[in-house]
Amino acid sequence: MSTQTAQQRSNTPVYFERLEMDAIMDVYGRMVAAGEWRDYALNMHKDRAIFSIFKRAAEMPIYRIEKQPALARKQGAWSIISPEGVILKRGHNVQNLLAFFDRRKFRIVR
User: Fold this and answer.
1) CA dihedral defined by 14, 20, 24, 26, rounded to 10 degrees?
2) pLDDT digit of tens for each residue in the chain (110 aa)?
C-alpha cells in the first residue's frame, strides 16, 4: 500500500501552497503597481513548480521563482533564476527568498 502511495505522489505535479502563493502575489502586486512587471505564468511540473515573471507578455520571463522539493535538504527548495538561467538566490523559505526583490532597486532604463 505504501508503494502505491509513493507512486501516486511521484505522478502528481509539484504545486505552490496557498501561503506561498500569497507571499509571491504580494511581491508581484507591488511590482506591478510600481510599473516594473506586467504579466506572469504558472507551470506545474513533476519535479518543480515555476512562477515566471514578465516585463511584457510577449517576451521571455525576467525572473523565475522555482520550488523544487527534491532540493529542500540541500541548497533549499526555492530559487530565483535570471533569464540566462543563473540562480540569483536560493533558500529554504519563500519569505526570505522574496526579500531579494525588496532589497533590489528597480529602475526603468529607457
Assistant:
1) 150
2) 444 444 445 677 889 999 999 999 999 999 999 888 999 999 999 999 999 999 887 788 999 999 999 888 888 899 999 999 999 999 999 998 999 988 655 555 55
Domain boundary assignment for the chain = 14-103
d(C-alpha 94, C-alpha 67), whole Å: 9
Residue closest to 78 by CA, chosen among 31, 27, 39, 36:
27
Three-state SS string over the chain comes to: CHHHHHHHHHHCCCCCCHHHHHHHHHHHHHHHHCCCCCEEEEEECCCCEEEEEECCCCCCCCEEEEECHHHCCCCCCEEEECCCCCEEEEECCHHHHHHHHHHCCCCCCC
* Polymer length of the chain: 110
Separation between Cα atoms, residue 49 and residue 65, nearest integer Å: 8
C-alpha 32/C-alpha 50 separation (Å) is: 19
